[in-house]
Amino acid sequence: MLAVFLLSSIYAPASASKVVVTISRQQVHAAFSLSLTQNVTALPNIATSVDSSSGTNISSVFAQSIREADPSASASNLAIGLNSTERGLNLTCNFDVSNVSQRNGDILSVNMTWLPFDVNADLRSQDFSFNTIGSRYLKSVVTYYANASRFVGLPNATITGVIFFVNGTSVNAPAAEDYVGNFTTLKFDQLTPDLDQWNRTYTLINNTTTWRYFPSQLFSFDMRIERKNVTTDYVANYGYSAIIATPGVGRSQGTIILIDVGTGETEWAMEAVVILAIISAITVQLLFRSKRKKLAKFQRK
After folding, report:
1. CA distance 30 to 57
2. Domain segments of the chain: what residues?
3. Which entry of 179, 209, 242, 295 is 20 to 30 Å from 118 by CA?
């Protein structure tokens, strides 16, 4: 029996898929690099870009979606890059977010409530739907095999088995159709605004604070089709990690990032004192060991 498996791991999203937010002074800039990999269908081959001057409603729809997450937030200078092939899509998205920061003395507070936003509209460039890929391109294929699964086991049936998996779990045909049909690329509701759940790191060398978050896979679909002696997996995967970076010493309180934008001498000094204390302890220990060795040699003589 010959079996051909196109495993999901082959089509796993690139680790470079990231949502990056950079805070500098009172400016907030977002740079998203997103990748969909799939072999369910043949996507259009398109390489193009869209920005605020393209004469489309994409910028206004994008800005409205962010306002729905945070009514105070305002998005501008949107630039989207698209590179679609038959087997996947690479999408970049850059924009600025304003009206989310406030300075009080030496402390800058930035509200990140806007980040887990979702764009549900059918955004198109050259008639390519780069957001609603699930309903536009994938669902019809899933529906075809869902219908074919009704004839499995009947005489002369060319398809002898159909199994659908969502996040590695077997599901029925209607659940698979709904899951695929609802997939959109610009969906960020898994990025919890509670930054205390993110991994915070302060780097003294470059005086930078970062928060990292690794949400669960946003879209993981596998459709296993058996045709007599051949089994083929049609898969689609999409996901990303997230990083928020800011210069200086930063800390979080729920959805708020607090940054010392003054001299920062107090907290920097505290970090420096800890490091110097560690270095001093190591130095003393090494000197003590060196003297003890010399004393042992002198006693042997």
Report:
1. 20
2. 8-262, 264-301
3. 209
